[in-house]
């Protein structure tokens, strides 16, 4: 219930629409009950005219009937009741429409707000979160689970507003007719409640398992689509088909178990209601037969009206009992959504965080150590180095040596657990993340482009989309010629992850993006390592155009690209083993010499 109430908190901005819905629902329930009463009047008063025209008593039933049908003339009563019935149904359906459309607005806006909040929250989660969670599972939560919430809460919210009001109005009518018989109705409530509780708890558990299983299916599908070239290259279609089929069959079994419980709920509760109705039919029938000849006609009329209202009440009762099952489906999905929203972002800037106008002197690491949550071994430890403004600094070392972690710490994707990082003379944690990252541009090894136009990819992250500036950046990145050759030029949609472009074209778009940003500090993650010689030369020319008059930090895999670096940091097992220029290291560093010789030996061979 806490989870459900938490979801309802998203309705608060739409109180006015909810109030309109409740008022129209109340009016609909009154008019619906009135329409049933009028039908009963037609059956008992008109179609079966009384042999005793003066039959009456002082009960509320008789008073209300006389108010609606004051005439003793059957023809006049027929005309009046037909007009009242037509007007009642017209007004009832108007309020029914107002109620549904206002609730639909609230429900849809509520789910839109949930999805927006979830998306925004995920964007600001730390990188460590994405290292521990699968993309497919996050996609499933954001799409499937939020959709499940919408379906479940759309039905349940509507039923929780409309049906209780209808039920209360029906019960009032029943008490107006017979207090004794109405009290017997409540005997079935505890039995029905017990059945609902048992089934609902079981449905929630199975719904949670189904949500987890569909997330697994999404992950398998996403991995297959992303790695479709590898799948086809290794002729692994059959293997992927079997893997997906096994997971899909597990999902089928979970859904069927869940369905058996969901669809069992309504028949059981309806049978409880019908059994109660038959009992009342028998008891009430005996009372009518036992009444005096003067009152038997009135008592039989009351009894017929009571039975009509009793069976009319079964529909809202059935919907209310079905709400429990529907709610549990939504709650299971909502708990998965809230499991993400409840993760503390904890990446906000400190109260004394300051913006920075310019990079003036240096970036300094002082005894910096950092360990990932998933590892006991430090990714980097006791890092001590200084990068001066305008320097060309290279980070080299084997895979897993700590180069990328060092860059992530510099970007404040993570915070050092020991030591400090200073930007000029200010501790990095006291600098606004946004201001810091605006000073830094990155050209990654694995180029990420978005399914948008070339123009928007180049100007990504900037509010300035000056086309002339985009063209200049493209020209500097050696990308202008191939862009102009495309049918739609700068308006060409590059496809998912840039699938419509070649590797070299994507890399040059990435470089154009860095040029457009015009950062004071540029980080290059060996942007040419995956390219052939011809493309490598074009990309190198583009890189040469952006390294001038900037502080450049390169993660180097090919030592030939960093021989002229002002400083080379040699990483080994999370530490800086050596540092210096190429000439210094080739003489004094065994690790660097070994790396250099192994690369150039393979080239010479």
Give structural notes.
The chain is an alpha/beta fold. The strands form 2 sheets. Strands 6-7-8-3-9-10 form a 6-stranded mixed β-sheet, sandwiched between helices. A 4-stranded antiparallel β-sheet has the order 2-1-4-5, covered by helices on one side. 31% of the residues are buried. The radius of gyration is 37 Å and the shape is elongated. The mean pLDDT is 77. It has 2 domains: 2-341, Up-down Bundle (ABC transporter transmembrane region fold); 362-604, Rossmann fold (3-Layer(aba) Sandwich). It is built from 21 helices and 10 strands. The longest helix is centred in the middle third of the chain and has 54 residues, at 237-290.
Characteristic terms for this protein:
Rossmann fold; 9% strand; single chain; 10 strands; ABC transporter transmembrane region fold; 6-stranded mixed β-sheet; 4-stranded antiparallel β-sheet; 605 residues; alpha/beta; 21 helices
Number of strands: 10
Percent in helix: 55-70%
Looking at the structure, what is the overall shape? Answer: elongated
Strand content: 5-15%
| Overall pLDDT confidence | 77
Q: Topology, please?
A:
Blueprint lengths: L1 H7 L6 H33 L12 H9 L5 H50 L3 H6 L2 H43 L1 H7 L2 H39 L1 H6 L3 H54 L5 H17 L1 H28 L20 E9 L9 E9 L3 E5 L6 H8 L7 E6 L2 E2 L5 H6 L1 E4 L10 H5 L8 H10 L3 H6 L17 H15 L3 E5 L7 H15 L3 E5 L11 E6 L2 E6 L1 H7 L1 H15 L1
Parallel strand pairs: 3-8, 3-9, 6-7, 7-8
Antiparallel strand pairs: 1-2, 1-4, 4-5, 9-10
Helix pairs in contact: 2-4, 2-6, 2-11, 4-6, 6-7, 6-8, 6-11, 6-12, 8-10, 8-12, 10-11, 10-12, 16-18, 18-19, 20-21
